[in-house]
Design brief:
5-stranded antiparallel beta sheet; single chain; 5-stranded parallel beta sheet; 15 strands; elongated
């Protein structure tokens, strides 16, 4: 590796995850200078062009422009490491050998492997990402949501979608309910329904989506409307008349 100090850009829309990645990098690679941080794809692109870092850590899903779009724009200008909570993206990219990845939440073990590979590559030309980007974009547009980034008090938590019992609209937020408790996200019920696996998650009310795997049984209330009893939660979910037909056979 050359004597020039290596530089990096971190692009991630969640401040806590940016800070976590920055800390892990400092521990694993003290010589690396993080020269800029971006919270959306547009910022990332502008900072990359201005500062020309050696490495760009790009969250695949960012506001304004995605990490995939940024990677396409800067291809060849620097080495790219995708940061993702979606394992299916990571495996595809990594198998190609052209780019590296970091899974969220970021672990010291994974960062250590990424740093080792980057040190070997940093003096070489950046890899051709064309094939990998095409595959990642196909997956990005077709795969259902797998993780939820939710606020839990003053902290941020990554919740696997499979662990969610139901989503419920509350004012400007949507409540994410698991067996362990509740958290809040800023997505609407409609946005969530469009992103979730429709074979697993059903909308049962204007403001409620339920995970079918979390249902213990379906009873009938005094109006003969379906009433959902959950496996690991005490509350019961009312099914509105609009969606009652979904449970006709139950």
């Amino acid at each position: 590796m050359s004597s020039k100090q290596p530089t990096a850009l971190i692009a991630e829309d969640e401040a806590m995850l940016r800070a976590q990645l920055r800390t892990r990098l400092a521990q694993a690679w003290p010589e690396l200078a993080v020269v800029a941080e971006a919270e959306n794809g547009e910022q990332a692109l502008a900072l990359q062009r201005e500062l020309e870092p050696d490495i760009a850590f790009l969250d695949i899903r960012m506001p304004v422009r995605s990490g995939l779009e940024v990677a396409q724009e800067i291809e060849g200008a620097c080495h790219v490491v995708f940061v993702t909570a979606y394992d299916e993206y990571a495996v595809t990219a990594f198998e190609q050998g052209a780019v590296d990845y970091v899974l969220k939440p970021v672990t010291p073990e994974r960062i250590a492997k990424v740093v080792e590979r980057l040190k070997q590559r940093i003096d070489r030309p950046a890899a051709d990402l064309g094939t990998v980007l095409a595959q990642l974009e196909a997956r990005d547009s077709s795969g259902p949501l797998r993780w939820i980034k939710a606020s839990l008090g003053s902290s941020l938590r990554l919740i696997p979608v499979d662990e969610v019992h139901y989503f419920h609209a509350e004012d400007k937020y949507t409540k994410v309910v698991t067996s362990e408790g509740e958290a809040l996200i800023r997505k609407t019920i409609k946005e969530l329904f469009d992103e979730l696996d429709s074979e697993v998650f059903w909308q049962v009310h204007r403001g409620t989506i339920v995970n079918l795997r979390a249902i213990a049984r379906v009873e009938r209330d005094y109006r003969d409307q379906p009433l959902i009893i959950l496996k690991d939660r005490p509350e019961k979910l009312t099914v509105s008349r609009t969606f009652a037909h979904l449970f006709k056979a139950m």
